[in-house]
Fold this sequence. Notes:
Number of strands of chain B: 11
Number of helices of chain A: 0
Shape of chain B: globular
Strand content of chain B: over 45%
Radius of gyration of chain B: 13 Å
Oligomer: heterodimer
Distance between the termini of chain A: 41 Å
Number of strands of chain A: 11
Largest sheet of chain B: 7 strands, mixed
Radius of gyration of chain A: 14 Å
Largest sheet of chain A: 6 strands, mixed
Amino acid sequence: AQSVTQLGSHVSVSEGALVLLRxxxxxxxxxxxxxxxxxxxxxxxxxxxxxxxxTLVKGIxxxxxxxxxxxxxxxxxxxxxxxxxxxxxxxAVSSTSGTYKYIFGTGTRLxxxx
Amino acid sequence: DGGITQSPKYLFRKEGQNVTLSCEQNLNxxxxxxxxxxxxxxxxxIYYSQIVNDFQKGDIAEGYSVSREKKESFPLTVTSxxxxxxxxxxxxxxxxxxxxxLFFGSGTQLSVL
Lengths: 114, 113
């Protein structure tokens, strides 16, 4: 069965510092992986997705993620945090069993300190 | 503009009452989904539908029901059998396929009076 684990339910960084949000997955087949962002009282919007075309994926708002098969990881990074990055971030994996279900991690809330 | 519309934004349920959450999309997507979001638990799948007149239970379907009579609509009913309904409910849709991103509505916050 596929699963996603996000380490750290809360992460705080200073404005201008590196953002690193961790995601590890479990899958018996090559997965499709996604990062979504959620601002307060809103739905989720896609930051980026991995579909095996390239291991380093660039997304919106300066975020990127690297797929590492040996570590079963798909960590999200941004070189320099901005106050507007404060939000909750979700890693997700898409089931390849034919049902196209999406399995979400428990989320990481990012706080950016001035 | 294309998108997903959820209504109402806030909903209150009395004991023993059924309530229905609306979800409409004009993106011409085949697949639609309902998720429940509780603090610290991420998103959990309630029901999903890949095609009109067909839907499948997700991981936490007990106490909920859905219908898919039209491609653009996927209403969720929270029945009185759902004993802990207070949560943020999100509807999503996409082109059916394992690598297709989900488009989300802005959610409905359901609370118990």
